[in-house]
Amino acid sequence: MGRVPTSVMWFRRDLRLADHPALRAAVDAGPDGVVPLFVLDPHLFDAAGTPRQAYLAGSLADLSERVGGMHVTHGDPVDEVVRVARQAEASTVHVSGDRGPYGSARDERVTRRLAEHDIELVRTGSPYAVAPGRVTKDDGSGFKVFSPFYRAWLEHGWRDPAPAVRDVPWFSPGGRTHRLPEVSSDADLPTPGEASARARWRDFLDEDVADYGEERDRPDHDRTSRMSVHLKWGEIHPRTMLADLGRSAGAEAYRRELGFREFYADVLHQRPDSAWDYYDHRFAAMDYDEPGDDLEAWKAGRTGIPIVDAGMRQLLGEGWMHNRVRMIVASFLVKDLHVEWQHGARHFAEHLVDFDLASNQHGWQWVAGCGTDAAPYFRVFNPMTQGKKFDPDGTYVRRWVPELADVPVKHVHEPWEMDDPPADYPAPIVDHAEERREALRRYEALR
Ligand SMILES: Cc1cc2nc3c(=O)[nH]c(=O)nc-3n(C[C@H](O)[C@H](O)[C@H](O)COP(=O)(O)OP(=O)(O)OC[C@H]3O[C@@H](n4cnc5c(N)ncnc54)[C@H](O)[C@@H]3O)c2cc1C
């Protein structure tokens, strides 16, 4: 007698039920039962700081309720997935494809182990509108520069959102299951889950997308979509968002940003070594400083440079930072403090709820001048000028640096210019003009 047709839906970065082609495939392959599985993989879970762990726990709890109880296990996915699939007597395990460096190697190992038991790992879709590696130049090679990638990506196009899958025959295979992790974080996190992602998206479309092009660089106005965390966990698929976007100038600007997310995933797929190594290897030979007290001051938001400190404190307070400020603080670490980008990327990885290996590492490398299509190294951000331009009244700085709450607008980005600066706020740990010269000197030496 053949097996009863059951399957396993192994959730990873796709914690939703709508627009979910892999779930459709799981139901087609397992009309008699689909096991909803999540494996807490210590390699990923333990590396995340508490804000990300807490958010994931909340998102899992939400999904678990909607599937009548998620089967949660803890350990190496190679062992766990095989064990659960065998227990469920499933012939297939379904996933949304993962082409990241760790995910693709893990999935290869799982595929091989499942095959020993005559079980297939079926990959359907990916967390992107177009799976990394699909958009190529005419000669089949990958793009290294964003604009031509973006044009080719638009031309390639993507499918419409997948129809909803109704009446999934969820079932539990019994046996050992872990409780959902209980993690609490001091950070002020958004509400996790698919409904929250959808609600946030609708609000953004109703209220902010029209002005997105003009407003996206203003941390004081705080009108970006904040969809990154929902995208990170796949509580919504970018295809769903792209289908809703429309044709306004704001929508065009937003589509371009989603294009950046896809571009960096593609670049990381082409160059998995660029996750922690220099995309442009020449920069490995640059003269950097050993990280010490300066790095700690940067992490704590105590550098004495208001916009930098505001950003670093927002990261600790919300597990998120505005994009313009991510660029400013990253530039400050690399070019004013002369610390290698990986130290900053690691701190972001620990604290960002939306941490995404491709966007983070390539965001850092872009700022550090060593990434693909990078900002030229010699273009050094002046954090005071940036602050005055993008936070002209100091509203953002005051929100996150209460020591500067009463400083007049004129001095809010340069409190050291006051006759009587606030005593509880540090003096700048470096002189920007001097460090800019030093950065350029080191760059010249490299050339
Ligand atoms: C040093 C540095 C580190 C970064 N680390 C991450 C990270 O770990 N995870 C992450 O999702 N983004 C990262 N970014 C990109 C960007 O800062 C965030 O995506 C954005 O701030 C998220 O807020 P939002 O959803 O309100 O963005 P919006 O402005 O509303 O943008 C919409 C969406 O477009 C995508 N997007 C926007 N800008 C970028 C960009 N520059 N690169 C790639 N995708 C983009 C994101 O998915 C974002 O949710 C980083 C940027 C820099 C400079």
Automatic annotation (TrEMBL):
GO term, biological process aspect, one: response to light stimulus
Amino acids binding FAD: 212, 224-228, 254, 257-264, 354-356
Record key words, sorted: Chromophore, FAD, Flavoprotein, Lyase
A Pfam family: FAD_binding_7
Annotated cofactor note: Binds 1 FAD per subunit.
Cofactor: FAD
Molecular function (Gene Ontology), one example: DNA binding
InterPro entries: Crypto/Photolyase_FAD-like_sf, Crypto/Photolyase_N_sf, Cryptochr/Photolyase_FAD-bd, Cryptochrome/DNA_photolyase_1, DNA_photolyase_1_CS_C, DNA_photolyase_N, Rossmann-like_a/b/a_fold
Domain Photolyase/cryptochrome alpha/beta: 5-129
UniProt xrefs under PANTHER family: CRYPTOCHROME, CRYPTOCHROME CIRCADIAN CLOCK 5 ISOFORM X1
Family recorded in the similarity comment: Belongs to the DNA photolyase family.
Protein name, entry field: Deoxyribodipyrimidine photo-lyase
Native source species: Aeromicrobium terrae
